[in-house]
């Protein structure tokens, strides 16, 4: 359940948590750029809502033993100082990959420790120059590998969609054992508005990703309401469960509900 990206006052306690379901909140987002949109070579800064404090993370985890809290890297855009249009967050190949990884490990470790977090979600959606993209799988894979090896995090997820899927498949080809769940953004397919089409899309995507990690996903109607909604979504999930294991569901996002 992504939370914190809309700049409003949504709090963890606003979201009902069932004792029967493992519930992951994903703080959105930590970004490798300053408030002016200048990239920082792997030095990530938190940009989620101010009300989602380290104290509130500790409180929700103490209240519900089945809750984990992650942070998500990148997202789609950032509202920067002095500009009316948002700045698009893009992956860029760093000139020194080892230095980027070192900076990222240090900055994300500091955020994880400050906010008492359990894991990291990778949500890079735009690529600087896809024709020359080489280092995304290596940098992200080595980052997560180091965070897990150092026992900084215990869970890692990814959030591909249609245009970014090839880069995430490459990441999983080399580092698949480091990632626990796949949030494929099915809701990004705005033309998929009924259960039948959603089921067909899920089966198609499952051919390129590990179905044991591939979750269903839903964009909450109050966000922008793309894709399948309401009863059609639950109908689709029940149909998928007849032939495939569905390990869980990703929601974008808590503020929309």
From TrEMBL:
Keyword hit for Hydrolase: yes
InterPro entries: Chitinase-like (IPR000677), GH (IPR017853), Glyco_hydro18_cat (IPR001223), Glyco_hydro_18_chit_AS (IPR001579)
One GO process term, biological-process aspect: carbohydrate metabolic process
Keyword Aminoacyl-tRNA synthetase: no
Domain GH18 per the UniProt entry, residue ranges: 1-257
Keywords: Glycosidase, Hydrolase
Pfam family, one: Glyco_hydro_18
Domain of life, per lineage: Eukaryota
Molecular function per GO: hydrolase activity, hydrolyzing O-glycosyl compounds
Family note: Belongs to the glycosyl hydrolase 18 family.
Name of this protein: GH18 domain-containing protein
Organism for this UniProt entry: Selaginella moellendorffii
């Amino acid at each position: 359940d992504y939370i914190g990206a809309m700049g409003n006052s949504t709090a963890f306690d606003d979201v009902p948590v069932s004792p029967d379901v493992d519930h992951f909140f994903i703080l959105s987002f930590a970004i490798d750029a300053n408030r002016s949109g200048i990239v920082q070579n792997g030095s990530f800064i938190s940009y989620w809502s101010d009300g989602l404090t380290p104290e509130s993370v500790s409180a929700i985890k103490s209240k519900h033993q089945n809750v984990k809290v992650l942070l998500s890297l990148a997202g789609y855009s950032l509202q920067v100082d002095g500009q009316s249009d948002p700045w698009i967050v893009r992956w860029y190949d760093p000139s020194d990959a080892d230095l980027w990884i070192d900076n990222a490990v240090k900055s994300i470790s500091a955020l994880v420790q400050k906010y008492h977090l359990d894991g990291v979600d990778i949500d890079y959606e735009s690529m600087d120059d896809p024709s020359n993209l080489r280092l995304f799988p290596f940098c992200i894979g080595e980052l997560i590998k180091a965070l897990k090896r150092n026992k900084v995090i215990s869970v890692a997820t990814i959030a591909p969609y249609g245009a970014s899927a090839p880069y995430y498949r490459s990441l999983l080809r080399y580092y698949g054992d480091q990632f626990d769940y796949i949030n494929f953004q099915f809701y990004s397919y705005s033309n998929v508005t009924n259960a039948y089409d959603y089921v067909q899309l899920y089966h198609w995507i499952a051919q390129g990703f590990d179905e044991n990690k591939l979750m269903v996903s839903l964009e909450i109607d109050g966000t922008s309401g793309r894709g399948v909604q309401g009863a059609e979504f639950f109908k689709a999930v029940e149909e998928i469960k007849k032939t495939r294991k569905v390990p869980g569901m990703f929601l974008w996002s808590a503020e929309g509900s």
